[in-house]
Design a protein that fits this description.
33% of the residues lie in helices and 24% in strands. It contains 13 helices and 20 strands. Strands 3-2-1-5-14-13 form a six-stranded mixed beta sheet. A four-stranded antiparallel beta sheet has the order 15-16-18-17. A two-stranded antiparallel sheet has the order 4-7. Helix 1 crosses helix 7 and helix 3 packs across helix 5. The protein is globular.
Length: 367
């Protein structure tokens, strides 16, 4: 008899869900888009409560189409973008929009931390120097600009951590959110409490770390009522979305390489040793004893989405297909047209939040 698992992904453009059988058969999938909120230059926010609302919609859609299979779901796992930050009160209610990992507002906080923290020591502990993806600069931005919000923070965690909380009622941060936050020792897997205390951030706001793919809890009666899922289904901690994509693509042998095009773009290289590089990110692999060296561009799919909205007014599959067909008829070099895609600053290898997008080489022959 086939068994079933249910997957949830909190992406920068949409919530995506899948129902998969134990034989590997894709039974069904559902997607609900959500908007990127960019109120000012360099800002990238989303409403975490909309993530949950879209998750509920997706689950209910698949439940309506496959009620018998959904009754046999034995496990739920969530992935998502990292390290987005969701700040909540004690009950888990978000205090403001989530600040995404490609948000680059905290320029002054990054400069202050770079000049204050001994950067080589930080690199030795976390695998990275202070950069715009780190959690601490964004938290300090909230402290400096929204002190009433900062004073009310009880929990800080990531995108799929929030969905896990809504499903199980348990607060936790998954290991790759921790690894990319710049706040955890990646070898000892512990919080850098001394650094947090130094800048007036209470370490207690960070929930316990949960290892990749460990059972975190079970679907609560409240979550069951909201979603239609059976109460008591085990929920695993999941992993970062790009890490999950590496496993799905079979990137499990040292030397394997994946190029992933999502809201952000990633180049993931598999190793058998914990390797860090000053111009790249580091992640734990889902496969025990494996690691990933990660090159990440801040705006990839999100740039395509912006372009389609501004030129075509929508972002559906038909529009994407139409633009692909038009692009296929053009030379790969675009007749000298060049785009520098730094529309949200840039992460690796530049690590520069002040980088800006540029389109140059335009002539009257371009359309």
């Amino acid at each position: 008899m086939e068994r079933y698992i249910f997957g949830i992904d909190i992406g920068t453009t949409a919530v995506k869900t899948v129902l998969i059988s134990s034989s590997g058969r894709m039974v069904d999938e559902a997607t609900q888009p959500h908007p990127l909120i960019a109120l000012h230059t360099g800002w990238a926010e989303e409403d975490a409560e909309v993530w949950w609302e879209n998750t509920v919609r997706c689950i209910r859609l698949i439940n309506e189409r496959h009620p018998e299979e959904m009754k046999k779901v034995e496990c739920i796992g969530a992935t998502g973008m990292v390290p987005a930050i969701v700040v909540t009160d004690g009950a888990g209610k978000p205090l403001r929009n989530a600040i995404l990992q490609n948000d680059v507002r905290a320029v002054s906080q990054i400069e202050m931390l770079t000049n204050t923290i001994e950067q080589d020591e930080l690199f030795s502990l976390t695998g990275g120097y202070t950069n715009q993806q780190h959690v601490l600069p964004r938290l300090l931005w909230i402290r400096d600009h929204e002190p009433e919000v900062f004073a009310s923070i009880v929990h800080v965690f990531g995108s799929y951590d929030y969905i896990n909380f809504k499903l199980t009622g348990k607060f936790a941060v998954e290991a790759n959110w921790a690894a990319e936050s710049g706040l955890f020792d990646i070898r000892k897997k512990c919080l850098l409490t001394q650094q947090l205390n130094r800048f007036g951030v209470d370490p207690a706001i960070f929930p316990p770390l949960c290892e990749i793919m460990r059972v975190l809890g079970a679907v609560t009666p409240a979550a069951s009522q909201s979603t239609g899922l059976r109460s008591g289904i085990p929920v695993i901690s999941g992993s970062a979305d790009h890490v999950a994509s590496a496993l799905a693509a079979g990137i499990i042998t040292s030397g394997d390489l994946l190029i992933k095009f999502g809201g952000a773009g990633d180049i993931l290289y598999c190793t058998d040793a914990l390797v860090t590089h000053e111009r790249l990110f580091f992640d734990y692999h889902i496969v025990p004893g494996k690691y990933l060296v990660n090159g990440c561009m801040a705006a990839s799919g999100s740039l395509i989405r912006w372009f389609l909205w501004e030129t075509a007014g929508n972002y559906d599959k038909a529009t994407l297909r139409h633009f692909d067909e038009e692009a296929a008829a053009l030379p790969a070099t675009g007749d000298g047209l060049i785009v520098l895609p730094y529309f949200l600053g840039e992460e690796t290898p530049l690590m520069d939040p002040l980088s800006r997008g540029t389109i140059f080489g335009l002539t009257l022959s371009h359309t």
